[in-house]
From TrEMBL:
It comes from the Eukaryota. It holds the Pfam family RPS31. InterPro entries: Ribosomal_bTHX/bTHXc/bTHXm, Ribosomal_bTHXc/bTHXc_plant. The lineage of its organism: Eukaryota, Viridiplantae, Streptophyta, Embryophyta, Tracheophyta. Keywords: Ribonucleoprotein, Ribosomal protein. One of its GO terms (cellular component) is plastid. Residues 28-81 are annotated as: Disordered. This is 30S ribosomal protein S31, chloroplastic. Coiled coil: none annotated. Residues 72-81 have a biased composition (Basic and acidic residues). The keyword Ribonucleoprotein applies. Belongs to the bacterial ribosomal protein bTHX family. GO terms for biological process: plastid translation.
Length: 89
């Protein structure tokens, strides 16, 4: 009986070790400084490319016309009614 439990323990340990030692199939996705495809990653890596061109005028497209800001949203509970309150002292 003791020999059987030893076999089961050894198979459990090897299966646990083999699954934990393997690396994930998908690589980790970096966003920001470590990402070589973003401008921040290009600045961090001191490199240039499509996200961060060496020539500032290249790849920017036509100049954008500034759009005026939209008016603020109206409060649904505000009915613009003013109530005058008389305080007697």
């Amino acid at each position: 009986m003791a020999a059987l439990t030893g076999v089961f323990l050894s198979t459990r340990l090897t299966s646990c070790i083999s699954t934990s030692a393997t690396s994930p199939a998908l690589p980790l996705i970096h966003c920001g400084r470590g990402d070589k495809k973003t401008a921040k990653g290009k600045r961090f890596n001191h490199s240039f490319g499509n996200a961060r061109p060496r020539d500032k005028k290249k790849g920017r497209g036509p100049p954008r016309v500034p759009v005026p800001s939209s008016p603020g949203k109206k409060d649904p509970y505000d009915d613009d009614e003013v109530i005058k309150i008389d305080i007697d002292e």
